[in-house]
């Protein structure tokens, strides 16, 4: 056996193709990417000097002159906002100086003193809501009687701050001091008068029917000329509606014997609901009823008596 025959198996095995590498098919793409990268880098190195400015061109380029910005002048009124507004406070208001705060005094916190104003307290209606409480006041200087609520002004004389039973507290607008007026305690017990001092109306008011009455105007004016004295002959209280806000009428809780109210046919427990069809739901309406009684020729009152509404007719001759 020759040497060639001995190595023939090895030569045959070497001539047979072996298995191809797994990434051999991507070799072409890797080679193309590398060639492209090299070409791009060489091209950039060639073009870069052309992109940079030359030194002689920079020296010959004219320099642009510096342009000053126009400064707009401001008026003094545009700066006033600094002094008129506190930019460090949320509400924008400048607080009072500490020295002024120490010197200032709040008169509303002082105890109220008895007022000398020409006003007289005729009555009060105290509501569970203080803002709804009402006071009836007679203004002597003007000869009128009006009803007021809390925070309302009394003919530029005072501003009401609190309404209590038989007492009214207010701020005197002349000196800004708290003051009060009240109804004396004896007025609540004996109506402010002795029995003999009540004006007698015997023979003045004529009763023509069960609820029909007639009275002469001269006699009526004589009996009603003193409102304060007239209100002391009887005591009434408001009857609130079920919701507690409105007023259904005013009920007599006491009537002085021999008074005008007794002669007009009223009894304790009667509730006045309306005047000529208009509901009496406030002291203001009650005052209108009083004024109507003095000026009208006939007045009709809606009165609730023993659960029934009756009509009281008054003829003024």
The CATH top-level class label of the domain at 191-316: Mainly Beta
| Principal-axis shape | elongated
Which regions have little confidence, pLDDT < 50, spanning 5+ residues? Answer: 188-202
CATH topology heading of the domain at 191-316: Pdz3 Domain
Q: Give the mean pLDDT.
A: 76
How are helices and strands ordered from N to C? HHHHHEEEEEEEEHEEHHEEHEEHEE
Main sheet attributes: strand count, strand direction, barrel closure: 8 strands, mixed
Helical region count? 10
Radius of gyration: 52 Å
CATH architecture of the domain at 191-316: Roll
In words, what does this structure look like?
The chain is 30% helix and 28% strand. By secondary structure, it is α+β, with helices and mostly antiparallel strands. Among the domains are: 76 residues, SH3 type barrels, CATH 2.30.30; 126 residues, Pdz3 Domain (Roll). A hairpin with a 4-residue loop joins strand 3 and strand 4. The longest helix is centred in the N-terminal third of the chain and has 25 residues. The chain starts with a helix and ends with a strand. About 5% of the residues have low confidence.
């Amino acid at each position: 056996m020759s040497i060639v025959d001995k190595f023939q198996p090895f030569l045959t095995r070497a001539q047979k193709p072996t298995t191809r590498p797994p990434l051999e098919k991507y070799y072409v793409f890797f080679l193309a990417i590398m060639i492209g990268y090299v070409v791009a880098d060489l091209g950039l190195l060639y073009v870069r000097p052309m992109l940079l400015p030359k030194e002689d061109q920079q020296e010959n380029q004219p320099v642009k002159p510096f342009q000053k910005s126009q400064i707009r002048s401001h008026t003094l009124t545009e700066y006033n906002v600094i002094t008129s507004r506190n930019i460090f406070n949320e509400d924008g208001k400048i607080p009072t100086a500490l020295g002024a705060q120490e010197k200032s005094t709040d008169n509303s916190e002082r105890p109220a003193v008895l007022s000398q104003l020409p006003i007289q307290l005729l009555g009060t209606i105290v509501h569970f809501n203080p803002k709804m409480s009402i006071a009836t006041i007679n203004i002597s200087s003007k000869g009128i009687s009006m009803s007021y609520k809390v925070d309302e002004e009394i003919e530029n004389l005072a501003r009401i701050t609190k309404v209590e039973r038989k007492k009214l507290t207010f701020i005197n607008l002349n000196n800004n001091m708290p003051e009060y007026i009240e109804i004396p305690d004896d007025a609540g017990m004996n109506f402010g008068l002795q029995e003999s001092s009540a004006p007698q109306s015997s023979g003045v008011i004529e009763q023509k029917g069960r609820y029909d009455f007639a009275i002469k105007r001269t006699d009526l004016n004589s009996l009603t000329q003193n409102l304060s004295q007239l209100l002391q002959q009887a005591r009434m209280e408001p009857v609130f509606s079920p919701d507690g806000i409105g007023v259904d009428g005013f009920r007599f809780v006491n009537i002085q014997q021999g008074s005008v109210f007794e002669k007009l046919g009223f009894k304790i427990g009667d509730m006045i609901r309306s005047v000529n069809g208009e509901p009496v739901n406030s002291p203001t309406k009650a005052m209108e009823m009083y004024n109507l009684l003095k000026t009208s020729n006939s007045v009709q009152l809606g009165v609730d008596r023993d659960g029934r509404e009756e009509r009281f007719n008054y003829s003024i001759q």
